[in-house]
Design a protein that fits this description.
The protein has 394 residues and is α/β, with parallel strands linked by helices. The protein folds into 2 domains: 2-158 and 263-390, FAD/NAD(P)-binding domain (3-Layer(bba) Sandwich); 159-247, D-Amino Acid Oxidase, Chain A, domain 2 (2-Layer Sandwich). 39% of the residues lie in helices and 27% in strands. The protein contains 14 helices and 15 strands. The strands form 2 sheets. Strands 3, 4, 5, 8, 9, 10, 11, 12 and 13 form a 9-stranded mixed β-sheet that branches. A 6-stranded mixed β-sheet has the order 6-2-1-7-15-14. Strand 4 and strand 5 form a beta hairpin. The protein starts with a strand and ends in an 8-residue tail after the last helix.
Length: 394
């Protein structure tokens, strides 16, 4: 089987590695327009269940991840000078650059060709010579947008503005923080991803954004006053940042883009990850869902005798699962958009509202990967490793 993958993000690279593990004879080519060290953002989060799925499907990758991940077991809510601590969770995070480096190394070990700094040919052109074309080219997928009618694409840009930043403040939990200012409310989501490094996502509505004097463009560039948006945010969140600065990485104010598709395949072209769906960052599921897409697609290709059958099975499994997560994420997004309604609550009550999103969201809504499901995947890849065709691939 010949497979072309457009996009070398976590979803695209993981798809390549898993298909190669299950079908070592496959020829897999990955195209990525950016250089290997060019990416956005800082850290990405995995739940315990998501890591269990990786451990079951690819133990060497899991071991490499475990050595690089930061781990924590709390959600902290910082409101009006008080921090409420909520235990009993298990999360891990890793820097996006580090994750991509591990996935590239895994692909190289397995014999996958990755072409960095090379824009992929059009998907229709690739489909003339490849059995399958996987569009893993992100939220702004050109592959999907050229075929919106075929995929039944719906995209909306809405909600508050947000800014993805980093800091050397070493958070020890997933932290939600509220800043009450003369301009109005701002809030932030922060979590550790490496020793002494954390992700910090600030979010603010348009009225407060304008009143606070934030600007378009690179958030780290100073304006006429000599101050940047990161300087302003560091001041506004000084209590939770404990005096640390904020740093940028291709950081610009944006709005969350909701992506939904009625169909995830058209002919030999399949959507995967953010090209197929997005979930609001307040539930931290984007990378996890892309990698779960990759696993489902790899298993479907190994299960079925033809690409159309495999794509039908892939879509039948993933579309309803992702739709459920999107509903949960939308509930979470709407709660934060209505933050003014809860800001006057006492810290203890505010904490309870945030953790349960006003009773509309529970821990069960964020759960995934039951032990039985992990065991089924583990046995599946173990069988592949024991088979003659997989004996040389680990």
């Amino acid at each position: 089987m010949r497979i072309a993958i457009i996009g070398a993000g976590p979803g695209g690279l993981y798809t390549a590695a898993l298909v190669k593990r299950l079908r070592p004879g496959s020829e897999i080519d990955v195209w990525e327009a950016n250089a290997p060290d060019v990416t956005f953002g800082f850290g990405v989060v995995f739940s315990e269940g998501a890591l269990g799925g990786i451990e079951a499907a690819d133990p060497p990758l899991f071991a490499a991840l475990g050595a690089r991940c930061a781990h924590w077991s709390r959600i902290d809510v910082h409101h009006r000078g008080r921090t409420s601590r909520n235990g009993g969770y298990r999360f891990s995070a890793i820097g996006r650059r580090a994750l991509l480096a591990l996935l590239r190394a895994r692909c190289a070990d397995l014999g996958v060709t990755v072409r960095h700094g090379t824009r992929a040919p059009d998907a229709d052109e690739l489909a003339r010579t490849y059995d399958l074309v996987v569009a893993a080219d992100g939220v702004n997928s050109a592959t999907r947008d050229a075929r919106r009618e075929e995929f039944g694409t719906e995209t909306t840009r809405r909600g508050s503005r947000y800014l993805w930043l980093g800091t050397e403040r070493a958070f020890t939990a997933l932290t939600f923080a509220v800043a009450e200012t003369d301009h109005g409310l701002l809030h932030a989501h922060a979590y550790p991803y490496a020793p002494g490094l954390s992700t910090f996502i600030a979010e603010v509505d348009d009225r407060v954004w304008e009143a606070a004097g934030f600007t378009e463009g690179d958030a780290g560039e100073p304006d006429a006053s000599g101050r940047s948006d990161t300087d302003r945010l560091a001041d506004l969140f000084a209590d939770v940042l404990d005096g640390h600065d904020l740093r940028t990485n291709r950081s610009r104010w944006g709005r969350f883009v909701s992506v939904r598709n009625g169909r995830w395949s058209h002919g030999r072209i399949a959507l995967l990850g953010d090209s197929a769906h997005t979930t609001h960052f307040s539930v931290g599921s984007g990378t996890r869902l892309a990698m779960e897409d990759a696993l489902a697609l790899a298993l479907a290709l190994d299960d079925h005798g033809s690409v159309p059958e495999a794509l039908a099975a892939y879509e039948a499994e993933r579309l309803p699962e992702v739709a459920a997560v999107q509903r949960t994420a939308r509930t979470s997004q709407e709660w934060f958009e209505e933050l003014d309604q809860y800001a006057d609550l006492e810290p203890e009550a505010f904490n309870a509202h945030l953790i349960t999103r006003s009773g509309r969201l529970t821990r069960d809504d964020l759960a995934s990967w039951s032990p039985d499901r992990v065991e089924r995947v583990r046995e599946r890849f173990a069988r592949a490793d024991r088979s003659p065709r997989g004996a040389a691939v680990r």
